[in-house]
Amino acid sequence: MVFLLFLFAFFVEFRLNSFIFADRFHIKLLKMRTKIVCMILLCVSAVTAQARKELLLEKNWKFSRDDLSEAVQPGFDDTKWQTVTVPHDWGVYGPFDGNADLQNVAIVQDGETRASLKSGRTGGLPYIGVGWYRTHFDASGFNRGQSASILFDGAMSNAHVYLNGHEVGYWPYGYNSFYFNITPYLKEKDNTLAVRLENLSESSRWYPGSGLYRNVHVFITEDAHIPVWGTQLTTPEVNRNYAKVNLKTQVELPGEFSGKLSLVTEIKDGQQKVVSRAETVLTKYDNNIFKQDFVVESPRLWTPASPDLYIAESKLYANGTLKDEYSTRFGIRRIKIIPEKGMFLNGEAVKFRGVCNHHDLGPLGAAINKSALRRQLTILKDMGCNAIRTSHNMPAPELVELCDEMGFMMMVESFDEWNIAKCKNGYHLYFNEWAEKDMVNMVHNFRNNPSVVLWSIGNEVPGQGSPLGLQTARFLQDICHREDPTRLVTMGIDNAQGAINSHLAATIDVVGFTYRLQFYQKAYQELAQRIVLGAETASTISSRGTYYFPVVEGANKKHDDNQCSGYDVERCSWSNLPDYDFIQHDDYPWTIGEFVWTGFDYLGEPTPYGSWPNHSSMFGIIDLAGIPKDRYYLYRSHWNPTEETLHILPHWTWPGR
């Protein structure tokens, strides 16, 4: 832009000097106009300058399974390494192996009291071990007066991150998003980023994936800027006539900044129309947090049937100069859970018609793929599903964004283990040091998303009936309340009587049972919440297109062909058929819905078969390829009553069959 201005001025000056017969007045007038035009162009250039730059590090990565410590150095020769695109899951490329991640365990949920060798529990895929990733990138225009961060949406696992030979950070939990400040080490040209990941054996109960399986971002901002996840937006008052919106915006400043900071925020609707605006000046008493209040007239409320979204576009100025731009997408909605009466969304009674899903995408592995996620959600939406539980870990941001857009309520879950082991090398090894950091990241990442309605602090963790379990539940719930006072907290409770005896069930905001239908009435009558959630339900097992005769209901049934009946009549010893869940949630307003185990089959956990060649689950309503099983239509007929459901089974049903 500056070059063009000089070129324009030179051209005008040249033309003026060539006008031999031009009078001095007109020459002076034309020069003045030229200056005015140049000033206007300079102002336009300043306004349109990019205050924030994001680099998506997707292509031209180098990958190796060799553990080479010298790979951190910029000059390391990686030309013989494999070239990959991130997101990337090295394990899904196989080969399948029955000896991969053998686990000598007793599956307590299946009633086992003695450990035995299990194969296929984590999918029989080679995800264990070390993997290195390296890439080069430019940070064009970066200078020492700016700030830079690197954000990993997820890296499986034990991530050590190096930039230009310097270690910038470590994060052990593979499911969480995390970021580091890379300002001291970033260069304008030819940066070398290296990431070492390591997955331990016996660290998971299902296929966790491997590698840089989610996206990697670099953010370059000015010295005064809004950090990653730096906004918190709430809607404290919502009705059909108006909505009050509160926005808190954190800013980071260079050293002792003494100038004037102001934040201009515009709220835009789905048609990009400005519906509210605020301009705020930061004072020294605000702890570097802007607080802005808005009113949106006649708001379009977010619901599963009509998931309308808004965006808050904020511009940060320091002494009148644009320093940063930050967008916060949100929805206007009000969730309220009332004892005895149930759950209400924008004043209307609603129940979760939900499914639990693991994070893998079947044949695609764990590498995030937004199109594949959208396909899954489209299939579930047609079934009448309106909710997703992210079992048993933090989800990819893309999933939450799609749930915002497509109208799914979410229970976002954190951990499958606390401080007592389920797996030999599971998260219990990191819990005491890392649990609070992981919880804070999860909440900050997703607290502005309208689809997220509940935080889940754990799934069927050992110790629910102990004082330590109660103490840990309070610790995690308090973090959620501190970082996000607007949402309630739940968890998956399988030791129902133990949790009642220890007062854990009475402490948690929303009592969430995994199965245990026999405790619903007891919890309703004895606990002050007077509300029960089916945090995990059904758990029937089936194979698409497989039928056995006569048709007999049973638990933990095994067949010679290692399949399960396509009829919804085979289940686990600790679970039940869907009909019983339908009865509970249809008949009582204080049951606020269910999350069926599971929406889709997933890699690993091949219940009821604990031995090779089985290596993927059979719990899904939909199979690994995304094709609905017969039971899909059972749920569709119940959850989507406004649409006609007609499904013909592919066999005869004459007497005796």
TrEMBL record:
Listed EC numbers: 3.2.1.23
Q: Which residues form the Glycoside hydrolase family 2 catalytic domain?
A: 340-511
Question: Per the database record, which ranges form the Glycoside hydrolase family 2 immunoglobulin-like beta-sandwich domain?
Answer: 234-333
Report keywords, A-Z: Glycosidase, Hydrolase
Report the sequence similarity comment from the record: Belongs to the glycosyl hydrolase 2 family.
Q: What class of enzyme is it?
A: hydrolase
* Organism per entry: termite gut metagenome
Record's protein name: Beta-galactosidase BoGH2A
